């Protein structure tokens, strides 16, 4: 049965202005907070950007201020009469560009979340705060851009159409993704099998790429792995293999109808629709992290395979062993990240609420 989420006269200009004001003020407030965060960190000499665990020059912190100032100006322009003198395409392009920049600044947030879950800490709280604020900015700037467009062109802020009567916001019936998207999702899930097998082999005490499970455990202890991580390892469970299994569950749920409805064993929620943000939040963060990270890593592995670059062996016996592990790891991230991007986009489109007229049809 189709779920009716909300009924309202979305053609009302007042309603469009209220929605535009809400998102605009929220985005403006974010820009002020983000700019202040960047300014204070720059003045106190606290690095916000890192390469792995190495802090980058503090001067890069001013980039946060350079993003926050136009963001505050653009969002405020949509709330004040003087903003109407700015051409609409200029505001749209500005907001889109700021979204891209904030997305780049948020890169690595997934790794921070994983580190926090298993280690109960992160490498740098200020860097993590910067990524979290940047990710929040992406969401608010997109919402502001949509609201600005709807108020400027007199369209529905949800579906983008022009309504002349009261409408009901309905969620479509659960459907599967198109066949090509499903096949790509299955390929992404399968790409994790060699990676999970490698990590599980080490967790169970076996040897792979010239390294035994005992050696990997000793390396993890030497590198300061948390008690949770080490406890799972002693039980024969690798934490990253467990995350890979959750990733497979996520991507399959994005392309199959069951990913849109709570299963029967969730007693209180049985049969109810899954909120769209619940799978989309980890999917979008994961896609934005794993797709570029894995793709760059796969290119690096390919260059190492043909001898253009030398792959660092790290804690592995030979560069050849390091190259094999790199293909199993970063190759899986590349395929899965690209597949997750396609699956998340398909889920976003298939679950998009639609507007339908609530006026009864009069028989002719």
Automatic annotation (TrEMBL):
The keyword Translocase does not apply. Keywords: Membrane, Transmembrane, Transmembrane helix. The chain crosses the membrane at residues 25-50, 62-79, 91-118, 124-143, 181-198, 239-259, 280-303, 323-348. This is Uncharacterized protein. It comes from the Bacteria.
